[in-house]
Amino acid sequence: LFISFSIRKLLVLALIQFCILNINAEIKLPRLISNGMILQRDKPLTLWGWASAGETISVTFQEKNFRTKADKKGNWKITLPSYPAGGPYLMTINKTELQDILIGDVWLSSGQSNMELPISRTLDLYKKEVENTVNPNIRLFRVPMKYSFKQEENDLQGGEWKSVTPDNILDFSAVSYFFAKEIYDKYNVPVGIISTAIGGSPAEAWLSEDALRNYPNHLATLSLTANDASVDSVRQTESAQAKQWQSQLSINDKGISLWNKDHLDISEWPSISLPGYWSDKGLGFINGSIWLRKEFEVDPSIAGQAAILRLGCIVDSDSAFVNGVFVGTTSYQYPPRIYNIPAGILRKGTNNITVRTVSNGGRGGFVEEKPYKIITDKGEIDLTGDWKYQRGAQAGPSPSQTFFQYKPAGLYNGMIAPVKNFAIKGFLWYQGESNTGNPKEYKTLFPDLISNWRSKWSDEKIPFIYAQLPNFMKAVKTPAESNWAQLREAQRHTLTIPETGMAVTINLGEWNDIHPLNKKDVARRLFFEAQHIAYNDSSAIRSPQYQSMEIQENSIVLTFSSPGKGLYTNIDLKGFTIAGSDKKYVWAKASFLADNKVRIWSEQVANPVSVRYAWADNPDDANLKNKEGLPAAPFTTE
């Protein structure tokens, strides 16, 4: 009995030890290090993860084995040598096998909504180009939105590597995809994009805490948001207030479940011409809901067919009905309204469309110069012109909302810090709109961000390629101050930092949309800068940049770098203003003196001291470019 008990005890101990060993054998990898990943070519590669303290980590890759041990906290890190482009490969880390690994160029793309904007939002321009696209050599890892204020996160909360397929591509960042495609087409290497952009995010949200030391206002905000209980309380309160506002609006709305019906007498409803904003149509600023209704005729050849309803962009939210049938809703103003009308809804003769709009801040309406129509296989039905309207319910301004993801250091801690061990080719950045309220601060904030990220990757020469802000808002006909112009100037001055490149997009914007759709040309110009900075191709074409000025009697002669084959326009040069010592700018005349020189003058300024070019929110007449077609960057000589 004694021997039997001892043997039984030994067996139990052995089983426990076996389980412990097996538990120890399980390691945890960061989400980036996973199936389908793309690793950076020609650079040492860092792999890292977590395990039991002291556990041996064995990595097998390309027939070589590498070993290390986890430290006392269970952290481990191992460096592999550099490899040329290639793949697919297998990698084994202890018992974990990673498949379909490629080696090529990896870019981290970040910024705000114009970088985040997916291919699905750009199908008006690129549908035929992307609908059947398959490319296993271009892959994107979309980092989920995560903000953290107390510490740098050690891993991402989700995400996976996805290659280009007809289904996957719709979620790809449009700028990132077209940029990656340019690289792949030119250099024939796999391209990986780590996408971290978040709509509306200001630059300070992407800086680490130590990089905010020169910004006491942002550090103070960070100290407040580091209190989890306080943040949770604000979020819960604001969420309850928002639900209450919407609920009360619905309760008070006289049209709910009535005015969306197919057969409705609207003969007494007043008329309004659309598109346009309520405040411009004599209705004033209205918080709350307005119901809009329009009748239209359908040819018998179209009746019964499925169709597409386009409602441009609506401020702020909408719900749409065709012949009483709900066809779509959008909860905020920026996305284009593209709703499917199912087969069987349209009928021959008179039809109707009803749109319930909700304005949160008073200036509601249909954004001008956007598509408002029904599209069928046999033609289009125009929906612009007179609509009938009726107020549903009035309300006070919608409750304010605190976007905590915009607070200092939050996005850096949650989305950048977990990536900093991953070797990359360079950074791709498209941001600035959310900092136009304080462009003076951006002059230091943006360079500090570049320095901050480079230091975290322990490489002061990582290429940083960024897009300058495009043209936006209505053009003005007289010289004026502009925060957007000042921020573009801050972006231009950032070029003094080595290994940076700026894509000029001043002619790629849309006056009525902060999210212009032409992302392919933005990506192409970013690629031109990457060619020059990251791929050492001095033949890459670039936008002309102001270099120096010389006062000559009553004029100023400007010299430009990167003129390409020469500065050019086929009409009169426009977009220049000139000022004397009083700094009162007036429109100026301009003429070419050489391939890289332009003379600026005005009869109104006898003794000029400075010049500005494309200095406006939307300098729609600025037309200086080089013969390759790239526009000159906006600037001031002050």
Describe the structure.
The protein is of the alpha+beta class. The protein is 21% helix and 31% strand.
Task: Please summarize what this structure is.
By secondary structure, the chain is α+β, with helices and mostly antiparallel strands.
Unreliable segments (pLDDT under 50, ≥5 consecutive)?
Answer: 18-24
Q: Please indicate the percent range of residues in DSSP E strands (runs of 2 or more).
A: 25-35%
Per the principal axes of the C-alpha atoms, what is the gross shape?
Answer: globular
Mean pLDDT: 95
**Helix run count:** 10
Return Rg in Å: 29 Å
Helix content: 10-25%
Terminal CA distance:
98 Å
Based on helices, strands and strand pairing, what is the structural class? alpha+beta
Number of strands: 36
Largest pleated sheet: 11 strands, mixed
Write the layout of secondary structure elements.
Layout: H1 2-25, E1 38-40, E2 45-50, E3 56-61, E4 64-69, E5 75-80, E6 86-93, E7 96-111, H2 113-116, H3 123-130, E8 135-142, E9 161-164, H4 174-187, E10 191-195, H5 216-225, H6 228-252, E11 271-274, E12 276-277, E13 288-298, E14 307-311, E15 314-315, E16 317-322, E17 325-330, E18 338-341, E19 349-359, E20 365-366, E21 372-376, E22 379-382, E23 385-394, H7 410-416, E24 426-430, H8 439-456, E25 464-467, H9 483-493, E26 500-503, H10 519-533, E27 545-552, E28 555-561, E29 567-568, E30 576-579, E31 586-587, E32 589-594, E33 597-601, E34 610-613, E35 625-626, E36 635-636
Parallel strand pairs: 1-7, 7-10, 7-24, 8-10, 24-25, 25-26
Antiparallel strand pairs: 2-5, 3-4, 3-6, 6-7, 8-9, 11-23, 12-20, 13-19, 13-23, 14-18, 14-21, 15-20, 16-17, 16-19, 21-22, 27-28, 28-33, 29-35, 30-31, 30-34, 32-33, 34-36
Helix pairs in contact: 4-10, 8-9
